Amino acid sequence: MTFKATVFGALASILAANAVSAADLPSYKAPPPPPPAPVGFDWTGYHFGINGGYGGGSASYLSNVTFLGGAVPGAVWNNAPSSHGTTGFVVGVQSGATWQLPNNVVFGYESDFNYADVTSGSPGSAWGWGGGALQSRLRWFGTERLRAGYAFGRFLPYVTGGLMYGQIFSNGFDAVGGISFPTNTSKWQAGWTVGAGLEWAVYDKISVKAEYLYTNLQGTNGQGFVPNVAYRSFVGNGLDTHIGRVGVNYNFKSFGALLGIPGLGL
């Protein structure tokens, strides 16, 4: 037997022994991939819901009074102020849209329309004379607001602000300069509102919220006349209302999902 044959024989024996040993080893399988990371709650979508709460503040006026008789006929009082506290309830509906960015900053738009019974009953007079029974009432109001917040998962604190509009009534008697002037007027007008709130997604499609709004309208204007005594014209000097309310929203990702129409991704 030659030296070359001996070497090849030894190598073949070694390879055969290694093959047998490898066959006896347990088979190796790659570990399964890790489960996907849980997806956090996404506020992006649309919503509509209902709300209700409390409102209170003040209604202020500036009056110009011309005396027609008495000790000083023809005398004029300019910008005589009067102010009345208001209180009552509000209830309404809201709808809007929300967009959540990858960094969890949230922007949105919300519109609401509400019935209100926020009224005053007893007038105040800067001069301390006379009395009266003027009722200033915020009867209807709506807001068109932007919202901005930061999402902590299912919790969304936010600030909000925008346009406020409403219908205001003033009727009864208002005391200015010791004279009670009859008042009966109503007006729709626009103003502004700012506030803040916290919304919590209890379920994927149901969220609850608590919200504070400060609203500002000018207030009504009109005239009052007491024959042979005095004539009064007045303008609103601020109808300020603080509103605290709670609400419930139904949230949906698209109108197609809401209506059950595949492909309608609005």
UniProtKB/TrEMBL annotation:
<dbReference type="Pfam" id="PF13505">
    <property type="entry name" value="OMP_b-brl"/>
</dbReference>
<feature type="domain" description="Outer membrane protein beta-barrel">
    <location>
        <begin position="63"/>
        <end position="252"/>
    </location>
</feature>
<dbReference type="InterPro" id="IPR011250">
    <property type="entry name" value="OMP/PagP_B-barrel"/>
</dbReference>
<dbReference type="InterPro" id="IPR051692">
    <property type="entry name" value="OMP-like"/>
</dbReference>
<keyword id="KW-0732">Signal</keyword>
<comment type="similarity">
    <text>Belongs to the Omp25/RopB family.</text>
</comment>
<dbReference type="InterPro" id="IPR027385">
    <property type="entry name" value="Beta-barrel_OMP"/>
</dbReference>
<keyword id="KW-0998">Cell outer membrane</keyword>
<feature type="signal peptide">
    <location>
        <begin position="1"/>
        <end position="22"/>
    </location>
</feature>
<dbReference type="GO" id="GO:0009279">
    <property type="term" value="C:cell outer membrane"/>
</dbReference>
<keyword id="KW-0472">Membrane</keyword>
<protein>
    <submittedName>
        <fullName>Porin family protein</fullName>
    </submittedName>
</protein>
